[in-house]
Amino acid sequence: MNRPDPTESETSLIIERARTTALIESMSARLAAVIEATADAASDDEHDPEGTTLAVERGQLVAQLERSRVRLDEIDAALERVGRGSYGRCETCGTVIDPERLEVLPAARQCVRCAARNPSRRW
Ligand SMILES: [Zn+2]
Q1: Contact at 8 Å (CB) between 47 and 10?
Q2: How much is the pLDDT for 121?
Q3: From ligand 1's centre to the CA of 115, what distance in Å?
Q4: Å from CA of 62 to ligand 1 middle
């Protein structure tokens, strides 16, 4: 591997990536169990109230998984920026992102000011 030693940011991104991957795996396993239980509940009794609870949990898991996958993409994109040497700079205005912000959000693409101007983008 012809790469420089991992920087502190890269290390925290890698840790964050591992945590997110583990979370996705456990949620996927839980989702599979919920889907199985839903199928069982449906075959046992169509009007089983448990079926509703399971449907709600299923919906929540799907949403959480979606968010975690987006997060994983953001982390991968951030790791790519580390490789290119553009990590830690705001994608919008080019200023250096506050290290404290990067500590909380290692995959942040924007500085606090630009992020505040685009409230729809959490990163
Ligand atoms: Zn900015």
Answers
A1: no
A2: 52
A3: 7
A4: 32
* Residues 87-112: tens digit of each pLDDT: 999 999 999 999 889 888 889 999 99
Break the chain into its structural domains and give their ranges: 8-86, 88-123
Q: How far is CA 120 from the centre of its chain?
A: 16
81 CA from centroid of ligand 1 (Å): 16
pLDDT at 43: 63
Of 35, 92, 86, 88, residue with least CA distance to 65: 35
Low-confidence ranges of the chain (pLDDT < 70): 1-6, 42-49, 119-123
What is the whole-number distance in angstroms between the Cα of residue 5 and the centre of ligand 1?
A: 27
The DSSP secondary-structure symbol of 5 reads: P
Q: How far apart are the CA of 21 and the centre of ligand 1, in A?
A: 29
For ligand 1, the distance from its centroid to the CA atom of residue 113, given in whole angstroms, is 6
Using alpha carbons only, give the angle 74, 80, 83 rounded to the nearest 5 degrees. 150
Q: Please tell me the distance from the alpha carbon of residue 31 to that of residue 46, in angstroms, as a whole number.
A: 20
